[in-house]
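QA checklist item 7 of 12: single-chain prediction sanity check.
[x] sequence parsed
[x] length recorded as 455
[x] structure emitted
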Amino acid sequence: MATGLAITSEGGNYNGRMTLFVILSCMMAAMGGVIFGYDIGISGGVTSMDSFLKKFFPEVLTKMKEDTKISNYCMFDSQLLTSFTSSLYVAGLVASFFASSVTRAFGRMPSILVGGAAFLAGAALGGAAFNVTMLILGRILLGVGVGFANQAVPLYLSEMAPAKYRGAFNNGFQFSVGIGALSANLINFGTQKIKGGWGWRISLGMAAVPASILTLGAIFLPETPNSLIQRNNDHQKAKLMLQRVRGTNDVQAELDDLIRASSISETIEHPFKKIVQRKYRPQLVMAIAIPFFQQVTGINVIAFYAPILFRTIGLGESASLLSAVMTGIVGTVSTFISMLVVDKFGRRALFTVGGIQMFISQVLIGAIMAAQLGDHGGLDKESAYLVLILICVYVAGFGWSWGPLGWLVPSEIFPLEIRSAGQSITVAMDKVWREHWFWKRMVGEVSGKSKIEGP
């Protein structure tokens, strides 16, 4: 293992090295990102499967197959279908605030455990669903799992990782999201070919695999030194854990800083009231603004509706799912690249480069579709493939910039005394902006506006 000094955000030098213990612990915790990514990838895939639509949303399938007068932009109009997708984010929004209290009072590990267990229950219910009520109830449980996991996992990764490699470790959360989404796309592509029209059950039920790993793994996850000091004021146990985490006995400087931060934290009875004070206003603004701009990039169109988008421009059911696999591969690889370079080039550079890349590709995609995609029919083959390539360029830009950094930066900027509250606000804002996009889509359906559009 490589050795070296970890540079803290306060400017102090901490002794330590990369240890196998940290790597394995963070890999297990990062399964919280896998369950989130799997849900993102699976929902868009199953809603493009004819068998799934026939079972739960037959009116959508009828418009696709039989109504030749229906506009390309209105084929997937269904408030019920949108409720299926968005119910997860309503639940996640509410759960994230409860998760803050659990994380602060009981530690990071219990929050991760609750998240995994709730997601496991939701996966089982979704895979066994025989009506829309069961389907949406399963989505709500998935949302509870995502709310707890997204609140606790980035904190866990940030606190366990050596400061020198914190960016790479925290970007591992978004990398795990990409792995989960890619896995879901691959499974959708395979289950769509199963005869009998029940492949969607495998797609939804397979979410239980990463959820089981996370739930069982959380039982054995060690608590972070920060949490041990904050909850139990057990300096000796925290020191032993810090020595194990950093791979050295000389951890007094870092321990002293953690104790000092915890002392300040103990004076804070109501962190949500504290965070609105002028002293913490920059952190509060970032906790709201970063998730907002992350969603305004338009990633939800690709993350949730890529197969539907590809079907709209003229690709078949199987080809659409395969195209979603391609974008998933691009997103995963680009996020891995971000893990390698984020601590070298810095957060601002990646934000800027990725943002410009996404902007240019979106302008070109919009121009092609505006010029060639009417209310009926699709794009010619060359234009459809060009759109697919440009979407991959867009996904790559998001994958090494706003995707992982949207979770990394907020987890770094909060002092310990408001950290759980700050992370809850970040997660809640992520759910609010996603939910805003979905409900805007539903309002658009009522008024007859386009359904495949950005925020």
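[x] summary fact logged: The mean pLDDT is 78.
[ ] second reviewer sign-off
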